[in-house]
Amino acid sequence: MTLVELVRLFAEPLDLAVLVTDCNLERPGPTILYANPAFARMSGYAVSEVLGASPRLLQGAGTNRQAARAVLPRVRAEGRFHGVLENYRRAGETYLCEIDVRPICGADGQPAAFIAFEREVVRRRGRPSQDGAGRYRAIANVALPLPLCAEPTLFA
């Protein structure tokens, strides 16, 4: 079973957007290897449209360049990135996206790929909810803790 097949098993039914990319962080990469249906619903892109592309395709004129440029250095230095970016749907509509990027490590302890858990932020932090729905548009509240490559995994 490949890494993408394993992720597909748990990510397909989730209402949380999941992307898997290769570990090439230099431009034009990273390259999207897997996107689940929740990602397609959130972004408006068909899964077939994003496979082989870079997650940068979601950025546009309103994307904070400083925040976008902080993603790769944080992943390199800290092994993960957690933050909010303004992304663009396929139709051009902007949305705030909370992104949590973590490595998936091989048997040697080095990143073999990266996995991103994403959800749309529908209201600002600290602002009270009017309807009790919270600040996310996600239907399910899913927490997926992953180790920072401290121990070898099953994937080589």
Please give a structural write-up.
The chain is globular. 22% of the residues lie in helices and 26% in strands. With 156 residues, the protein is an alpha+beta fold. Strands 2-1-5-4-3 form a 5-stranded antiparallel β-sheet.
Features:
alpha+beta, 4 helices, 156 residues, disordered C terminus, 26% strand
What is the structure about, briefly put?
The chain is α+β, with helices and mostly antiparallel strands. The chain contains four helices and five strands; from the N terminus they run αββαααβββ.
The number of strands is 5
The secondary structure category is alpha+beta
Q: Report the total helices.
A: 4
Which geometry do the CA atoms define? Answer: globular
Reading the helices and strands in chain order gives HEEHHHEEE
- Kindly report the average pLDDT value: 82
How can the largest sheet be summarized? Answer: 5 strands, antiparallel
- Radius of gyration over C-alpha positions, nearest whole angstrom: 15 Å
Note the gap between the termini: 12 Å
- Side-by-side strand order of the widest sheet: 2-1-5-4-3
Helix content: 10-25%
Binned strand content: 25-35%
Regions with little confidence, pLDDT below 50 for 5+ residues: 138-147, 150-156
How does the SSE layout of this entry go?
Elements (H helix, E strand, L loop, with lengths): L2 H9 L5 E5 L10 E4 L1 H7 L3 H4 L14 H14 L2 E8 L5 E12 L5 E11 L35
Antiparallel strand pairs: 1-2, 1-5, 3-4, 4-5
